[in-house]
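Structure first, sequence second, as always.
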């Protein structure tokens, strides 16, 4: 099977990168941020709102690829402040907790993300639904 670019209409359009690439039995999801389908930043200054939007975007991209949040095997979480960690963990619990299956994860605090309004970015690797 050739690599497949995943470009769902349920998330914001991309320019210069793909939301995800499906290759073999894996899906590699680019860092998802707090943008709606028009590209507008959601929850400016509010890490709780942003975390929820990030997970909604992850979910939409994975489902478009034939995967899902329950099939994520690895995440990389980037945030601009360590103080946001509890809010991010609450979102992780909401989205991963019902399955009881949490993926491997790396958590990093960075000086800035690509836009100063973004507070959280999460990338993921997942398997496909069988």
């Amino acid at each position: 099977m050739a690599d497949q670019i995943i470009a769902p209409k349920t998330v914001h359009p991309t320019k210069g990168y793909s939301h995800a690439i499906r290759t073999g039995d894996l899906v590699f999801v680019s860092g998802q941020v707090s943008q709606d389908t028009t590209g507008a930043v959601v929850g400016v200054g509010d890490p709780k709102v942003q975390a929820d939007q990030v997970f909604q975007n992850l979910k939409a991209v994975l489902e478009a690829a034939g995967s899902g949040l329950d099939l994520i095997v690895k995440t990389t979480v980037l945030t601009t402040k360590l103080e946001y960690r509890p809010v991010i963990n609450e979102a992780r619990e909401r989205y991963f907790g019902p399955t009881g299956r949490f993926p491997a994860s790396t958590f990093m605090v960075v000086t800035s993300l690509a836009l100063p309004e973004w507070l959280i970015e999460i990338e993921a690797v997942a398997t496909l639904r069988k």
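Margin note: Residues 47-64 form the longest helix (18 residues).
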